[in-house]
Amino acid sequence: MDENVGGLLSGIPPSALTLTLTRSAIRMEHSHSWRADKTNQVHDLVIGLEGRGCYVVGDEEVELSPGRAMLIRRGTRFVGWNPETTTYIGVAQHFTLDLFNRHDLIAHMQLKPVVELSRWAVVEPLVRFYRETSPLSSTTLMQFHLFMFILLDFLEDAFLAWAGNPTEGLGAPEGLPLAIMLAATQISANPLDDGVVERVMSQTPYNADYFQREFRQRIGWTPLKFREFKRMERAMHLLQAGHSVTETAAEVGYGDVYYFSRMFKRHIGASPRGYQLAVQRCRDGVFPRGEEDGEVHYPLLPHRRASAITDVAGLSLGPPASPAAAE
Predict the structure, then answer these.
(1) Residues in Cβ contact with 266 at an 8 Å cutoff, skipping those fewer than 6 apart
(2) 40 neighbors 95 (Cβ within 8 angstroms)
(3) How many whole angstroms separate alpha carbon 165 and alpha carbon 170?
(4) Which residues face 70 on adjacent strands?
(5) How many C-alpha atoms does 182 have within 13 Å on its Cβ side?
(6) 177-202, pLDDT tens digit by residue?
(7) What is the maximal distance between C-alpha atoms in the chain?
(8) Residue 83's Cα: distance from chain center in Å?
(9) Of 170, 252, 174, which is closest to residue 6 (Cα–Cα)?
């Protein structure tokens, strides 16, 4: 199918994550005589831009070249050197990434030690810009947002699995929000997997009814409804990209296109074809009244659909809504 629009952390609200840059970016520019032997107290993302750098991280030897990135976890000793006569150029950033200001999110992830960044053609200009514009002794708002994009791109490529039971050793009140957010990320990343909700529910140490109630309170949907909505988000992406309703239904796992259309309308508030027409009108600049910016926000609120504004083509277009409005 088209590009995966779920994303590893798409189930986590932005407000739940706290990114801290503990120092300015390190503009790596190392000659053949360069050697490093140190341990950082925070995580360190290192990306190669030119030349070649060799590292021993823990007990593993790795190599960085243009387009390759590695994460050195906090408290891990590493040794680095330049094996070439040419200059080794890259960028490194020390950071922490916490969930609810109490859980180290990186610590709960199993990650590949080094990855080839799959979207390097897109990311490389940003990494170079980030390196060139970062202040020497401080951090800036622009630097913060650029690094978050780069870090999330790395995590998408490096992620293998969640590390064990993320709530093990935590008390019930403290561990519950973490368990809910991690369950949401697993569902978001695999909404086409028929068994993902059952698997997520079997892994949680909480009573199933209690967990579902708390999940709905924080996310706005029950786990099953959240999975269905994420399937429909995939469908919206495909429909917007020009796929037919039949093709889209098949891509998101529906053999019956009519049943898919009913489910799409139930979750999104418009039929698949109606959604495509709304997208086309937006592209053509024919905006419905009350939406002069051309944006129609989905899902449409169920209790407002009857009184929603109707545009010249007759499609019911409601006001902005959030997933919490749906059951």
Answers:
(1) none
(2) no
(3) 10
(4) 46, 114
(5) 27
(6) 778 888 888 888 888 999 999 998 98
(7) 72
(8) 35
(9) 252
